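User: Sequence recovery, please. Input:
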């Protein structure tokens, strides 16, 4: 099967130097990341470093096929060239589009509609999900409605992040819809199961080497968590994903000032953000543009903990016990589908003795039931791929 893979990329696509027609040229190196400008530019390109796990999971799921990743920006920029699309339609049998929060009120999928209208091949939309489900039907942008109309009229397959998205797409007239979860969930199944087994351990509530994730620059939740779980002489390790472009975590100084150590993934420059004055522990900020480096670092932690889905999934891919705090509908949809243990933010945030609450929560996890559910979801994902010839 000759597959045109597009949409959210893996970190390997940082080497893309350019595209001509259907030919993708790669550099034999990654761009340097050292200065403030370098770091912000790299985050902005992917929007959220957690997205690299989605692209990586989608690409990994297609092993055994002839796969070419074509950046979506090239497909969009070439949409007025019949010659370019003629080559795509001749050289590929199917298109796989790695996606995430595509169905949301604030995003109009006009470009996606135009691109998929010109691709004369079946399309698999992998990992599609809803963000801010309340009022979505009434507020779905015109471009997204057009996108759905285009795919409704051709051979298309939707592999959704959960049940709610699948139900929504069926209501929109999509014929082949199957909830499968985010493709990142199935990148390293053996390690995921090891992580789930290790999570049922109340002693993790006293862990001191924790990878935290949340929304620094917006709320102080992670700082409060670190104070509740860590001793005074422990260091809080926080992994940045999109905060420097989306949540007002700023790096003061000129664009060319050195702020990043790529060997450790640590932000070495000064950072300014709302509530930073509340820290009562030593802390470090890290950011990773290579998922293997991210997994390597997180493998040295005892626990991944926080409000970021992929910030915990990468820990699970490294076999590290990981527990998420659900903060919105998109997280709940993914977590409820896959059956992973999680805590509700509203409940966790009002606990006065968080360490005791966490220990009690962990002690009640039925590891075997969770692993059985995960194994069933993995089999469902592989079956869905096989159904469309992948």
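Assistant: Recovered sequence (390 residues):
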């Amino acid at each position: 099967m000759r597959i045109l893979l597009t949409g959210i990329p893996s970190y390997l696509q940082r080497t893309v130097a350019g595209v001509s027609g259907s030919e993708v040229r790669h550099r034999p190196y990654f761009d340097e990341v050292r200065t403030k400008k370098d770091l912000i530019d790299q985050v902005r390109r992917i929007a959220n470093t957690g997205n690299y796990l989605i692209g990586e999971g989608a690409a990994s799921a297609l092993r055994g096929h002839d796969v070419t990743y074509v950046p979506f920006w090239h497909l969009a920029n070439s949409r007025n060239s019949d010659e370019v699309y003629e080559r795509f339609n001749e050289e590929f049998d199917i298109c796989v589009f790695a996606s995430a929060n595509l169905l949301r009120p604030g995003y109009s999928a006009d470009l996606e509609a135009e691109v998929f209208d010109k691709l004369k091949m079946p399309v698999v939309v992998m990992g599609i999900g809803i963000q801010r489900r309340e009022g979505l039907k009434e507020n779905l942008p015109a471009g997204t409605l057009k996108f759905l109309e285009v795919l409704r009229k051709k051979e298309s397959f939707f592999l959704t992040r959960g049940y709610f998205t699948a139900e929504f797409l069926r209501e929109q007239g999509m014929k082949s819809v199957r909830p499968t979860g985010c493709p990142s969930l199935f990148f390293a199944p053996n390690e995921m199961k090891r992580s789930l087994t290790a999570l049922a351990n109340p002693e993790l509530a006293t862990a001191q080497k924790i990878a935290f994730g949340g929304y620094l620059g917006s709320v102080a939740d992670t700082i409060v968590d670190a104070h509740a779980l860590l001793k005074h002489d422990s260091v809080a390790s926080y992994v940045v994903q999109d905060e420097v472009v989306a949540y007002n975590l700023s790096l003061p100084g000129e664009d060319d000032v050195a702020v990043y150590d790529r060997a450790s993934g640590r932000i070495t420059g000064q950072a300014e953000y709302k509530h930073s004055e509340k820290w009562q522990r030593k802390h470090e900020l890290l950011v990773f543009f290579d998922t293997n480096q991210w997994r390597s670092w997180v493998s040295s932690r005892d626990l991944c903990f926080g409000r970021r889905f992929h910030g915990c999934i990468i820990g699970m891919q490294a076999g590290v016990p990981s527990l998420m705090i659900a903060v919105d509908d998109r997280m709940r949809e993914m977590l409820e589908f896959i059956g992973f243990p999680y805590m509700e933010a509203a409940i966790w945030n009002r606990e006065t003795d968080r360490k005791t609450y966490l220990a009690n929560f962990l002690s009640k996890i039925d590891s075997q039931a969770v692993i059985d559910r995960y194994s069933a979801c993995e089999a469902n994902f592989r079956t869905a791929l096989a159904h469309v010839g992948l």
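The longest strand covers residues 2-7.
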